[in-house]
Amino acid sequence: MRNPAAVLALAALSCTATTTPQPSPATAVPAETTPVATTTTTSTTTTPAPSAPEVDHEGDSPQSAVAVPKDAPDGGVRFENEWIYGRFGRFRRHGGGTGVLENRRYDIVDVELADGTRHKVYFDITENWNAWQPPQ
């Protein structure tokens, strides 16, 4: 036989436990698909390091050598000096030389900057070299 108290408790529970159905959420239509950057402030999450600033490597190697114009006077020496000054500011030449790599001719200039650091600057002098004419 069934326990009448249990049946009554179950009936009472079913009557009081009914909930009002929630309306279904409306389907959201994104206005725009622009990504949003988020950051977390928890101690377990690390944020990525900022990217390195872009560095101009022009003149740092034969592959990035500064091209001396074909018509630069005096073998391009004045052009080279003005380029170095425009790039680094005050400087002192400590030496240099020319060389050939993969059928290109280069001037390599060793300079000391105002802060005491030294740099080698590469100039591609191929066009200027080929255009040279002896003085008349």
What does this protein structure show overall?
The protein is an alpha+beta fold and 136 residues long. It has a domain at 62-130. The protein is built from three helices and four strands, in the order H-E-H-E-E-E-H. Strands 1-4-3-2 form a four-stranded mixed beta sheet. The longest helix has 13 residues, at 4-16. The protein is elongated, with a radius of gyration of 38 Å.
String of helices and strands = HEHEEEH
β-sheet strand percentage: 15-25%
The pLDDT mean sits at 78
What is the CA-CA span between the terminal residues? Answer: 131 Å
By oligomeric state, this entry counts as: single chain
Q: Percent helix among the residues?
A: 10-25%
Structural class per helix/strand content? Answer: alpha+beta
Q: Report the C-alpha radius of gyration, rounded.
A: 38 Å
**Structure annotation, total helices:** 3
Largest sheet: 4 strands, mixed
How many E-type strands? 4
Q: What's the arrangement of strands in the largest beta sheet? A: 1-4-3-2
The parts where pLDDT drops under 50 for at least 5 residues are 5-17
Layout of strands and helices, then pairs:
Blueprint: H1 4-16, E1 66-67, H2 77-88, E2 91-101, E3 104-113, E4 118-124, H3 126-130
Parallel strand pairs: 1-4
Antiparallel strand pairs: 2-3, 3-4
What is the compact description of this entry?
The protein has 3 helices and 4 strands.
Which features would summarize this protein structure in a list?
136 residues; 3 helices; alpha+beta; 22% helix; four-stranded mixed sheet; single chain
